[in-house]
Amino acid sequence: MSLILSGVFNILQLVTVIICFLIIDKTGRRPLAIFGGLATGIAYTIIAILSGLYANDWTAHPDSGWAFVVMAFLFILIFGLTYSPLGWALPSEVFPNATRSKGVALSTNTNWLSNFIVGIATPPMMDNIGYRTYIFYAVWCVLAGVWAFASAAETSGKTLEEIDDVFGDTNGHEEHEDMRAAAMSIMRAPVPSTV
């Protein structure tokens, strides 16, 4: 049964990521981040409540057990629709050309390091604090949603220069002017004779 559920989890996440890429430009990045943070926080809170009340005897409370599974699926759906693709889409949009490769590499490293830490930390947390582990993650999810509401800028449909303006940076404008000057000098250069 766990192998089947694992397969279903992975297929659902793939489907929701595809849906996200179809809607991300229409809905915008910021609304997805706000919704994702708050909705995953709610899912984790319900999981924590169910786990806190019934984890000692799931067999006596099968409906609660299935509700737990449904909430876990819901979390995966919401995460796949929001933060999973946003973690890859946003970094490539916010860094200017000169630092984009380093910025995307840093964000990718941060993503994988965070996944590693969660994977290492969760089993001992479950052993030591049980259902409170879900509360811990719920708080971080809600904080991510609040941060997105209070601080995240919308990058959808903006040029690099407009994104630089949002963040108070001038690198994009400088790069644009450098590229323009280089193009103009190439256009003015005499064409060598081939004869």
UniProtKB/TrEMBL annotation:
Membrane topology: Multi-pass membrane protein
Gene Ontology molecular function: carbohydrate:proton symporter activity
Entry-linked PROSITE patterns: MFS (PS50850)
Residues making up the signal peptide according to the UniProt record: none
Transmembrane annotation, as ranges: 6-24, 31-54, 66-91, 103-122, 134-153
GO cellular component: membrane
InterPro entries found in the cross-reference section: MFS_dom (IPR020846), MFS_sugar_transport-like (IPR005828), MFS_Sugar_Transporters (IPR050360), MFS_trans_sf (IPR036259)
Domain Major facilitator superfamily (MFS) profile: 1-156
Location in the cell: Membrane
Designated name of the protein: Major facilitator superfamily (MFS) profile domain-containing protein
